[in-house]
Each structure stands twice: as C-alpha cells, then as structure tokens.
Design goal:
Elements lengths: L1 E6 L8 E6 L2 E5 L24 E3 L5 H4 L2 H6 L5 E5 H30 L13 H8 L2 E4 L5 E4 L2 E7 L7 E9 L2 E7 L22 E5 L14 H14 L4 E4 L5 H14 L11 E4 L1 H12 L1 H4 L2 H8 L10 E4 L2 H7 L7 E4 L9 H8 L6 E4 L8 H6 L4 E4 L2 E4 L3 E4 L9 H9 L7 E5 L3 H15 L3 E2 L6 E3 L4 E4 L18 H18 L5 H18 L4
Parallel strand pairs: 3-4, 4-5, 5-6, 10-11, 11-20, 12-15, 12-16, 13-14, 13-15, 16-19, 20-21
Antiparallel strand pairs: 1-2, 1-22, 2-3, 7-8, 8-9, 9-10, 17-18, 22-23
Helix pairs in contact: 3-4, 3-7, 5-6
Amino acid sequence: MKLTFVGADHEVTGSCHYLHVAGKHVLIDCGMQQGIDEFENVEIPVDEGLIDYVFLTHAHVDHSGLLPLLYAKGFRGQILATDATVDLCNIMLRDCAHIQMQEAEWKSRKAKRSANQAPIEPLYTMEDADGAIKRLVPFHYDEVYELCDGIKFRFTDVGHLLGSSSIEIWATEGNTTKKIVFSGDIGNKKHTLIRDPQYTKDADYVIMESTYGDRYHPKDRPDYVKELANEFSEAFSKGGNVVIPSFAVGRTQEMLYYIREIKEQNLLPDYPDFPVYVDSPLAVEATGVFQKNIANCFSDEAKAMVMKGINPITFPDLHLSITSDESKMINFDATPKVILSASGMCEAGRIRHHLKHNLWREECTILFVGYQAVGTLGRMIIDGEKEVKLFGETIEVRAKIKTLAGLSGHADKDGLLEWINNIGCKPSKVFVVHGDDNSSKLFTETLKAEYGYDAYAPYSGTEYDLLNNCFIYEAVPVPVTKKKKAGKVSDVFARLLAAGQRLISVIYKNEGCANKDLAKFADQINSLADKWDREI
C-alpha cells in the first residue's frame, strides 16, 4: 500500500497523486501545470496503460487537464467523479483540446516563416479528449461505493466548484484497512451559488491542499455587488469597458449572480441597460450545467431564488457570444460594456483578444476576480508590467488594473484549519500539497507547532508506505532549470507506441486466465507481429 506524490507539491497547479493498493494502480487527479514550474516533477510511476482508475476531485484544468494525454498514452481504465464533475468535464476537456489544437496550428504557421522549424504538434487532440470523456463514470455525493476487492470510496462536497469533492478511500490489504482522505480544493464559505464545504469525520491519512495556507481573506465579507457597481460606474463614465478575465466554470456564474443584483437594485441609474457579454462558449455551456445541478449543489439562498421562479444567473442585456464573429464584434461596439471572458489567468482563449483591444485604453478597467499563478499573463499584469506581448504585438498597459479582494473559490488559512480540525481523531499523518513553496511550508509548520499534527510537505517523487506508516523515499527539491514541455503524443508513431504500452498492460491483466485463451491471445499477437515485422 504505497502513496507517491507526483504533481502540485510545493506548487499550486498540476495536481496528481499515485496510489498502489490491493494490486490496483490508482491516480487521484491528473492536472495540467499552469504558469511556471518551480520544481521538477517525477513521471507517473507506472505506464499509463497499467492504470486501473483515476479519482477526480473536480473539473478545473489543474486537476483534470491531462486526462486526454493520459488516454493518448494508453490509459483505458475508469475515471470516477461526481455527477456534476462529469457534466463539466464533458465540455471542459473538449475545450482544452480545442485550445491545444488551435495554439499548435498558430505556432505551426509561425514556424513556417522561420527556417528549419518543424510543425508544432498539439499536446493532445479532440479524439483524445473524447476518449477520456468516455471513461468518465458519475457517482453521487455522500454514498459509500465498493470499487473492487480492497477499495471503497465516497465523495463529499467540499464547496470549491460545482461538483467539487474531497475523496475518502478505504484501502484494504490482508487484514488491514487504512482510510486515506484527499481534500481536493477546499472551498471558501458563504458562496452565492454553491454549498459551503462539508466535513469528513475521520481519517488515517490526509492529503490536503494549502493554496491559501499562508494568508487570510478579509474578516468582513466585502460587499461585492457595491464594489462591482462602483467599478462599472467609473469606467462607463469615462466611456470605457470593464474587462473581467474569469474562469469559465464557477467564477463566471458567480459574477453573473452579482451583476444580476446590480441591475435588480438599479445601482447604476445612469446606465440601467448596460450590456454584459459572456464571451466564452465554454462558460455558456457551463452555465447550462449549473442549471442542471441546482438540487444537489446549489446553496440554500440560490435554491430559494429558483423556487420563486428567479433565475439567479441571468438578466436583461446579457449577451452570450458563441461564434468567433460574435466575439470580434464586441470590440467594434463603442458602447461601454462589461466583458467576461476566459481564460481566467489570461493564458489562452478569447480574453487575450479583449486585452489587446482594451489594455492600452486609459478609460478601461481590467478587473481580476480569481487567482493568478506566477508566470501567467494575468499575474504579470497584476504585478505592474508596463508592456505585454499579445499575438506578437507589444501592448502598453494603460488601463486601470483592479483586483476584487477576497473573491476566491479557495478557503483561506482559517478555512483550511477549520476543515482539518473537524476530522475527529488526529490522522497518523497529514501531507500538505497544492500550495506554493512558501504557503505549503508555513501551513505545515502551523499544523505541527500550533495544532500537534504530524504534518509533512512532500516534494514530487516522495513515496510513503501507508501500511507501516513510514517513508520509502523522501524526495528533495529539484529546481527547474528550463521550461519543460510535455511530450507530444499526437503524431502517428507516438500513438503506435502508446498502443504497444496498452497491449503490455492487457497482457499483464490476463495473467491467470485459462491456458487455452492465453495461447489464442499469443497466436493473435504473433500473427499481427509477423504481418508488420519488416527487415531493416
């Protein structure tokens, strides 16, 4: 029974953990790295084709974004997630693939203009995304399921995103059972739309996030409706736009909730009909998923509005832009407006076009409403860069740059402590992950010194024996010396290699079958090999 830490260790994105238990190879999350890698990450310890299951805490890309790559490399197991997470991944993984293919095409066109540069392959394709989506299996909150001999599990609502969960896994080997709890991303309390985090009663081991483990949200919850109204009024009075880089899933719907309040309360009497554009096909589809999951995921406040016949995330003068032509027309309209567009960290998508058209305008406001990882364009703008590159063009930053303080989907330090302290008996070990180097270290020290937990912040590659409660290997930090690029697997020969890896995994899984069947299988493989074996 072994746990290996792969991704989001002393880093905030790229979450991935490997669990070997009851003879099964299991991943918890398979996320994409966003921003700059600070430390080198180890590879998944087994071939992708050997992985039996992936538990997915939620649909955000830094937890789910490499599932298509996993599929492309031979994974054919099950991906277990909550009902709402499955619904969101259906659209988010396809959107990720679309962005990968679109950016690869743009870079390839650029490469053609340079001598001796090969075309750029996407990280994965739409076919890979569809393959991963077909492996998704939905489960309800709060029910204990038996996955296979030696593994039971339960999803608990952790209030970070629609469908987000902490995952309890009961792992049994021989006569010993250990309960391992993966916190996922713990949500900020008092959401407008989704429920507050629910707590877990007991655990032998806890793997918990620490994104805001070194800081606090404002004690008094800001009046976001009033703050937004003030920012809108200031920009509109100067003839400018308010551009909001917003995560398409979760944050966009929350912003729509606040804007509906502004219009309902008539807080901008001089601009009662101001237009609001949601310029993200993904955000539009995600809003539909939110409507579908009202009963299981919405807060009591939001459900009460729905019971009264009020749609909490729509209002007059709301425009949903789907096509690229509709997106382009937004910036040709001189009417002051609010533009909500993804991606939230400004790394890809339509938001980059809106920044190109509005960053240089002093009358405009760029309003950040979510976490910006180090190395992302959003973080560069917040940190005061005077010029940024967009589509090969240098753009001066003249617009007002504003951050809406405290508006976060993550629990702060107090929220994280409240979650861990609600676990009844102290776990044997608490592993602190999913926080930058400073945050994970400081939160670990808080757990140890102030609350008496046996806490540890592992680096990627650390291995732990869960049966005997001891380290197999303690990894040391290996700083990244150059930007790593994930292996491209979408070319034909790489697909062939992935198919070979999968064949090996299938062979191992058939060990112990009847000799007659194994002989037939071997003959089929040899026949195929004879057909393609070519002398060099």
